[in-house]
Amino acid sequence: MDKKNIRKQIIGLLKNKNHKSYYEHKLYKKLFNSLEWKNSDSIAITISLKFEIDTRPIIRKAFLDNKEVFVPKVISKEEMVFINCTEDTKFKKSSFDIYEPLFTFKANISDIDLLIVPGLAFSLDNNRLGFGGGFYDRILKKYNGYTLSLCFKEQIYQKALWKVDDFDQKVKRIIY
Ligand SMILES: Nc1nc2c(c(=O)[nH]1)N(C=O)[C@@H](CNc1ccc(C(=O)N[C@@H](CCC(=O)O)C(=O)O)cc1)CN2
Ligand SMILES: Nc1ncnc2c1ncn2[C@@H]1O[C@H](COP(=O)(O)OP(=O)(O)OP(=O)(O)O)[C@@H](O)[C@H]1O
Question: Which has the closest alpha carbon to 58: 115, 13, 99?
Fold first, then answer.
């Protein structure tokens, strides 16, 4: 199946997910118990869309744990930057309907200990399919910290059903 069709299919599944918050809480628990989380003083994470795993509880917990929080902002067709956010940071909806921080300081990705990578589909050998901008592929290529993705079991395939391109980057760990 091609990437486009898998994206469509998974978004449909996510929109109809039953008992979503029950499964989300199981994922948060696994995340907060992980060494990656415990060992990180700074994390980068998206502001989720409605059908994605809700990232707000993760952001709240990061602040409670005194971690630095970075949120991505797309600044061109090719480039996404990470902005250091506080509890007072103002957000604005982008053209893609995603909340992004109003610009302050662009972070160095080497300042991020843990990159929580969004994705629609994953394979057990850690391949990842995103929204299709290639933004995370470009970041992952030059990023050396911990990377992990959270997803529901329905988003996992034994092997990638889509064509894995040369530029596709794996995540180090998938929590599901
Ligand atoms: N909640 C959330 N935020 C996120 C992501 C995500 O997956 N989830 N991203 C994960 O990467 C980045 C944003 N990804 C984006 C991907 C595509 C387009 C976009 O404008 N797409 C065009 C078509 C692009 C094309 O087909 O070439 C469009 O839909 O009009 C924007 C943002 C950063 N923020
Ligand atoms: N390192 C790179 N340099 C230049 N272009 C890249 C790179 N990585 C990916 N791309 C471009 O990004 C586009 C989208 O790739 P793909 O469909 O695999 O995105 P995705 O992994 O689903 O999205 P994302 O990483 O934003 O979540 C491709 O057309 C590819 O040309």
Answer: 115
- pLDDT reported for residue 103: 77
Q: Is the CB of 130 under 6 A from ligand 1?
A: yes
| pLDDT reported for residue 1 | 83
Residue 44 neighbours by CB distance under 10 Å: 27
Q: Are 173 and 125 in contact (CB under 8 A)?
A: no
Distance 131 CA to ligand 1 centre (A): 6
CA 74–ligand 1 middle distance (angstroms): 8
Q: Which of 55, 82, 96 to mutate to test the pocket of ligand 1 (most atoms within 8 A of CB)?
A: 96
**Which ligand lies nearest to the CA atom of residue 138 in the structure?**
2
Residue span of the structural domain in which 12 resides: 3-175
Give me the number of domains the chain comprises.
1
The complex scores an ipTM of 0.90
Q: What's the CATH code of the domain at 119?
A: 3.40.50.10420
Give percent above pLDDT 70 in the chain.
100
Mean pLDDT throughout 15-40?
A: 98
